[in-house]
Predict the 3D structure of the following.
Amino acid sequence: MNVPVTSEPVKHKPTLLVVDDEAGPRDALKVILRPFFNIQAAESASAAIDVLNSRHIDLITLDQKLPDRQGLDLLQDIKHHHADVEVIIITGYGSLKSAMEGIRHGAAGYLLKPFNVTELLSLVNQTLEKKQRLDFLRHFIGTSTGLWGSETECAQAWSELIAGYHAIGKSTLGHEGKSDSLPDLLPLFSDLLEAKDRQLLNHCSRVSFYATLLGNRIDLTLAEQKSLALGAFLHDIGKIGPEPYQFADDEITVTGEAVGNRNHPEQGSKLVLPLKLSAEVGQIIAYHHERWDGAGYPFGLKEEGIPQLARIVCLAQTFDHLTAERPGRTPLSIDDACREMLKYAGTHFEKNLTELFSHMVQECKASLPAMAMATTPTDRSNS
Ligand SMILES: [Fe+2]
């Protein structure tokens, strides 16, 4: 069989853990995968955790239905305690909804039983390559001081980062030597956010989607629309530093309370400076926590002094913080989130824009969360 890995093979033979309670599918997976990988197997969630805690695992194929726990539940546990282990869900009980649920919780992919062998091997190889990229980025952002140094140091760090990423990557980066062109950088930005934390990537993807929806309702040029989609996607890029990421950290509540790293707008806008993105993208990153009444941060800008695209992203990210699921808090419904935000129209947010946003999300609320997760700025940049 003509298989694996990629143009840039991993340095060690990867170890896969097959988690399935049924001997038939488990043995089939072992037979298919054994020629190319080291294989471990577990027939329950607790056995899988034991293996994970006792040896290095690169990738897990996870049956969605296990005797002691649901696969999705185990997946969340794995991504919490072993964030660098990639997971592919293999299930006979699949549906689009459960597939998206698994991917939202950090699964790299999804296969339905009975699976096609070529499809399985191709997905495993793609996922291992993605793991190489994420491991490289995790190490880089966890150790680099240059990214947060002077503009010259930051530019040098970016060129090392992009070169290292290119060396692992392949077609996803487009043609070599065009690493500063925007379409080429989008997969890197997405991987950077995911390398920091899957929740950060999910948040940024949804915020970009909500901001783009609102941008479509107002009179923006095509260039402004593109800057809005990208700026919203990168609005929290200042959080990829070595400090641990907590979604709740950036809880900008509509009452104006904000906890966590208040430097991230400035850090983020400085970070992207060497990339020569549009000025609007930098403004969105720098000003997305400013308030209409001047009580925001970090600059205390007020009213029309806050660039319009940053005002849009401020609304979009607040809406996402109110409506997104996270441990320990029940998310608000779309209606309740709109009611909450409208209370602060004219103080925290620009009044007309808030009303338009509220009207817009209520109009398409039936499909809103699914749509927000289903698209990325990478998709939109091609449209
Ligand atoms: Fe933020």
User: Anything to note?
Assistant: DSSP finds 16 helices and five strands in the chain. The radius of gyration is 22 Å. The chain has two domains: 15-134, 150-381.
